[in-house]
Design goal:
single chain; mainly alpha
């Protein structure tokens, strides 16, 4: 009579381990999703500041139409990015375009002294810091999640349960080519 208790006990133990492992992977996957949402929130915050900055610069430098078009196109690409890689590539374009837009202020001393422009610069600088922190948090969360699904025992069932590796948010261009902005 007791012979059947051992196999049943093993099956129950394996079931409990599988359910516990699955729940842990779900929590970690949702952590990655939450971290990505924070990156998107900060990118949206920056995207929302851009029109105000562009309008302020236009008031002083209306002849700089090429850079205004470049900023608008980069912002549109970022808004339409549906994957981490596409968002990273679009973010790189926005960063470059914003750098060139802010560099225009060197040619317009009255723009540099405009209170609205300075306030927008400060807000943009704070947002850039928030974006950097959100990216770092996202990548740390992805690192923990990816390590979990690649290590035993999770690696034995993660793929079968639909948990795959997640992408890091990383620059798509050579970081050394980022334009330098001086105020």
């Amino acid at each position: 009579m007791k012979k059947w208790l051992i196999p049943v006990g093993i099956i129950v133990l394996l079931g409990v381990m599988l359910v516990s492992g699955y729940n842990n992977l779900v929590k970690m996957s949702e952590g990655v999703n939450g971290s990505w949402s924070q990156v998107q929130n900060q990118l949206q915050r920056r995207a929302d500041l851009i029109p105000n900055l562009v309008e302020t610069v236009k008031g002083y430098a209306s002849q700089e139409k090429e850079i205004f078009t470049e900023v608008a196109e980069a912002r549109s690409k970022l808004a339409g990015a549906s994957t981490v890689g596409a968002a990273a590539q679009a973010d790189q374009a926005v960063t470059g375009a914003l750098g060139r837009l802010l560099a225009i202020s060197e040619n317009y001393p009255q723009l540099k002294s405009d209170a609205n422009f300075r306030a927008l610069q400060d807000e943009l600088a704070g947002t850039e810091n928030r974006i950097a922190v959100a990216r770092m948090d996202y990548n740390n969360t992805v690192q923990s999640y990816n390590a979990k699904i690649k290590t035993i025992p999770s690696s034995l069932y993660a793929g079968l349960l639909g948990f795959g590796e997640r992408d890091y948010f990383k620059p798509t261009a050579n970081v050394e080519n980022v334009p330098e902005v001086k105020f």
